[in-house]
Amino acid sequence: MRFRGFGIPVGALPTGPENAITDVAGVRVGHATVVHGDPSAGDSVARTGVTAIHPHEGSVFRAMVPAAIEVLNGSGEITGRSQVDEYGYIESPIVITNTFSVGAAHQALTEWLCETEPTLGRQHFVVPVVAETYDGFLNDVRAQHVEPAHVYEALNNASSGPVAEGNVGGGTGMALFQFKGGIGTASRLVEVGGESFTLGVLVQANTGHRHDLNIAGVPVGLEITDLMPEPGQLDPDGGSIIVVIATDAPISDRQCRRLCKRGMLGLGRVGLTAGNSSGDLLLAFSNAVGARLDRFADSHIVNPARLDDRAMNPLFQATVEAVAEAVLNALVAADTLTGHRGNTLHAIPLDRLAAILDEAAARVV
Predict the structure, then answer these.
(1) Catalytic: 240?
(2) Measured distance between the N- and C-terminal CA atoms of the chain, rounded to whole angstroms
(3) Of the residues 75, 187, 278, 286, which is catalytic?
(4) Who has the most CB within 10 Å: 41, 156, 252, 313?
């Protein structure tokens, strides 16, 4: 199930063919889902995983892409942020996992890069990009269930085309508006100066108070007040969200930062408020061929083409719409899941959601 199945568009712009971040040509996404253990048997329960994003069809270490990272609330982590802030580029695939597995993912991504890039550790170093949200309600995080093989699986199996959503990859154990959450994605097509560009978004969503959930202007969270997390208590202020924004429009790292800020508006559109202990982190990049920086180029004169700031408005709108829809896709795609200590996160009931949205639409008519 995807949110479009309810017949309600999120904004006015058209989507790409898959309505996914992979509609941006060259972007590839892979997941490794780690689920094992029976809580009723006293097992150490794994409800976690890894999601990997390759920014383009080649090596991002060799052809770096302009990027920026912005923080809405900073109780979270994206490694490599200081280098991205300094240089305005990313030089590794993006890996997303759970909070306690950042170290394991960072080491595995470094090893994977060393295997694929022969100059690493000899002529060059690398600062990998790894992001996290906390899945300790369903996943026994202290057991460190994410292993290097899972990171390799997500990286090596990444592909273009449809992207699995909900209880997959890094999103396996995540909560959203106190329902089950996880991975969501969406895209938009824009026209700028007679040229066509694509913008895509992927989120790992693990945040939100139920009463704040707002869909198409309808306060859904005030309508569905049951099916709360059980039997343990889940603090939604401690949740987080990672937002990755990709585009093939030729923009600079400064303009990527502007997209991140508009992504925050997309989060607010569905009711997210970024609590005090939430890690709400946004990363945007452009994989336009003319904007990439060739690490091994002979010339040291860099003059990449980029859009005029006066032409950015369509990309701003696309970001707001795609971020909001990616969150909703993460919500409706997720399935009920029981995990660590018998804790359960319920999927949002799709039949009841449809009835609420239909009733609201009828009132408007």
Answers:
(1) yes
(2) 26
(3) 278
(4) 252
